[in-house]
Amino acid sequence: MTTTTTPTEERIHLAALRLFSRKGYAATGIRELADEAGLSPSSLYNHIGSKEDLLLRIMRDGYARLWSTAQSGLDGIEEPVARLARLVQVHVYVHATYRQECRVIDAEFGELVQGAREEILGRRDDYESLWARALVAGSENGSMLVPDQRVARLGLLTMCTGVAHWFRPEGPNDVFDVSLRHVDLVLSATNATRGRRRAVASGLPLLDRSWFDRALPDRPVFQATA
Amino acid sequence: MTTTTTPTEERIHLAALRLFSRKGYAATGIRELADEAGLSPSSLYNHIGSKEDLLLRIMRDGYARLWSTAQSGLDGIEEPVARLARLVQVHVYVHATYRQECRVIDAEFGELVQGAREEILGRRDDYESLWARALVAGSENGSMLVPDQRVARLGLLTMCTGVAHWFRPEGPNDVFDVSLRHVDLVLSATNATRGRRRAVASGLPLLDRSWFDRALPDRPVFQATA
DNA sequence: GTCTATACTCTGATAGAC
DNA sequence: GTCTATCAGAGTATAGAC
C-alpha cells in the first residue's frame, strides 16, 4: 500500500505502529521509537521528517488501503443491500487485520496538526460517504428500513471500527468469520430485505476468503498484545 | 456521583476532564492542567496525589455512575428484551451526556498503572456482564436470535459507546432521542421479538425522560468542542 | 490552603564527525 | 547512510516561605 519504501523506513514504520498503538502517540518518545527500530535517535531523522510526519503517513496509508479495498470490493455491484454488506466485510476485515494501524487512526486523530487534520478528515469523509450512499439508496428503493440515517450510519460504522479494539487472532473467531457476523448484524439492524425475505449474509453476493487474500496480500505478521 | 468534593477539587476534576478528553492524558501537562484549573502547579498537589491518581478517579467515577444508573434502571424488569433495551438506553444516555468522562475512560485505559488497571477492568467486566446476561437470557427463552453472543455483545456495546465520540448536543438529535434510536438498532440487530412480532422501542416498558432527569440530576453544563 | 523557585529527567530535534 | 554529543524547553513533582 505504501509507495516504495526502503527496509529501514519499513522498520521505522512498523516500530511506530507497535508503539503508537500500544502506548499512544503522545506517550511514545523519539528515543524509544529509535530503539524499537534499531537505530539511534538522530539516524531516525534521515528517514522521517518528524514524529508528526510519521503519524500523518500512517493515517494516510490506512485510509488509502481502506478506500482502495472498498472500491475494488464494490466493483460491479449495484444492489444497495449487497453494497452495504460488502462495505461491512471490507471495513471489518481491514480493521481486524491491520489492528494497530486502525487503532492509531482512530485514537490519534486529535494529535494531527492543522493542515494534516483537514487532509485526513477529507479522506475519512470520502470513505464514509460510500456507506452513506448505500444507506440512502437502500432506503429509497425500499430494501432497507432505517428511521434515522445519520444515527444508523454513525452507530454501525462505529461498531465495525470497534473490531480493531477487541479482535484477537488467537481468539475464538477468525477474521473472515467476524466480518460475516457483522454483515448479519448490520443487515438486521437496517431491516434489510431481498425479495420478500429479510436479507442474510449467506444469500448475498459477498466477497470470499480468496478475494481478501488477493486484495490484501501484504498482511502484517505480528501484532501488539496490548 | 463523586463522594463529597471541595470546590477546588471539583474545578481540577473538570479541568482534567476537558483537557484529557481533548488532548489525551499523556499529552496534557501538569502546568497546563493547573492553568486550566486556575492554580499553580504546586497547589495542584494539595488536592491530588498525582496525575495518575486523577485519571483513576475519573475512571472510577465513570463506572460507578454507569453501574448504579443501570442497576436502578433495571429494577423490577425481568423480561430479557426489556432489560436489554433499558441497558441500551442508560448506556447511550450516559455516554451522550457525560461525553468527556466516557471518552477518557474509553481512550486512556492503557495509561493506567498496574493495580489501577485491574480495578477498572473488574468494574468494566461487572458492568458488561449485565449485557451478557440479558443476551443469554433472551436467546434461551427464544425472544432474541443471536448467532454469536460474543461478537454481538462486543459489537453492540461498542456501537453504543461510540455515541460519546460523535454526539453533539447542538446536533440534529437530542440525547433521549439518540438513545431510543439505539434501542431500535439493537433490537433489530438481535432479532428481538415480543409475542409473535418483532420488538420495537415504542412497545416496550422503557425509561422516560423524567426518569433520566431524576437519575442523573448533576449533568455537566459544558462540554469540549473537540 | 496559596505561592515562587527549583530539582531532575525526559522531550523532539540538530550539529557535525565518520 | 551511521553515530556521539548536545541544545533548549517541557515533563512531573517537591521544598519551603507565607
According to CATH, the homologous superfamily of the largest domain in chain A is Tetracycline Repressor, domain 2
Number of helices of chain A: 11
Overall body shape of chain A? elongated
Secondary-structure element order of chain A, N to C: HHHHHHHHHHEEH
Unreliable stretches of chain A (pLDDT < 50, length at least 5) are: none
Query: What is the subunit arrangement here?
Result: homodimer
Pair with the most extensive interface?
A-B, 37 and 37 residues
For the secondary structure, the number of strands of chain A is 2
Mean pLDDT of chain A comes to: 95
Compact description:
Chain A is an all-alpha fold. Chain A has helices at residues 7-23, 30-37, 41-44, 51-74, 80-97, 99-107, 114-140, 149-161, 163-166, 175-189, 209-215, and strands spanning 193-194, 197-198.
